[in-house]
């Protein structure tokens, strides 16, 4: 239980202790998780966090928040509570579900962070899961016809691929050649990160069976395409528009997977002997025109930087979700950052690993935390992503390995 709270409470530090994820699978009948339940994928990640921190009493966990975009079937029934029970946490641990489309896991982290900073929670688990094979994006959704009839939202906003094409239209400098080059680099960086062993420590192996194949232990993302060349990408069809620029090669795929993170107050982490991977500095969400959804990380990052009293030059590492290459490049161009800047997505991104919607925010955080270990010279990093229906989310983090960690900026 959390300690008694003074009526004159001060905000507390929030730290990211650890993060894990399943390998991401391809959605569909032939994907490696076709016969695995979504909630069981989430259970795997929660159990792995407990396994990695055996000295943490599960009863000390005050809250569990698990996100999903399509909350029905095996992704329904208030996931935080059901996953908590299935993972073997005590019945005294409460939980709830979160939905902010692609930023579900990110919002699970920021929502729990608010509770931790306020003092009502000491230790919590945030997570996200999306089984796009069982729940295709938008399944059973019934958008209000007023969105279109009253022109509240451009019809293109309801199709993410169209919003990416709209970014190309709005910013002619964001050419297909640039997005293809970025996509090829993402695949190459992901392959190199696997070769170095940077990704494997984040993964929870999952046993699954596939028709005609029997059981296998899944230890690697299924959608990786190492060796992708510009020539490979140039000939791909453009499914969202004739003679368009968005292809399956310069966009994230349709995927299944889950993530989870252990969060705590700084005081609780010290008292319980939990390691600190990162300290949360600020976070912000912002809205943009839904038809250019991918531009959302620009205003959310500007808000988060202003809250933190930082500038973009203070950020030494970036984890930007690659829903579409054009969306990442729009963000980079706005802030004057080169397409191939070494600070950006050092391990590659969603174009290579995949993007199981609500789970991706914690993948970004887990990778940034590992990069902080490798780069003690970097003090601040950020995780950011675009969000369907015209939003962006950004979280700024401080590196505990930096010599000035915890000091006033």
What this model shows, in words?
Helices cover 31% and strands 20% of the residues. It is built from twelve helices and twelve strands. It has helices spanning 38-52, 79-86, 104-118, 146-149, 160-170, 176-196, 230-234, 266-272, 297-308, 325-334, 350-353, 360-374; strands spanning 14-21, 25-26, 63-67, 95-98, 123-131, 206-210, 214-218, 255-265, 278-287, 315-320, 380-387, 391-398. Strands 1, 2, 3, 4, 5, 8, 9, 10, 11 and 12 form a ten-stranded mixed sheet that branches. The protein has a two-stranded antiparallel ribbon with strand order 6-7.
Cα radius of gyration in angstroms: 20 Å
N-to-C order of helices and strands: EEHEHEHEHHHEEHEHEHEHHHEE
Number of β-strand runs? 12
Helix content: 25-40%
Sheet/helix structural class? alpha+beta
Low-confidence stretches: none
Distance linking N and C termini: 33 Å
Figure out the total of helices. Answer: 12
Mean pLDDT: 95
Beta fraction: 15-25%
Q: Which term fits the overall shape?
A: globular
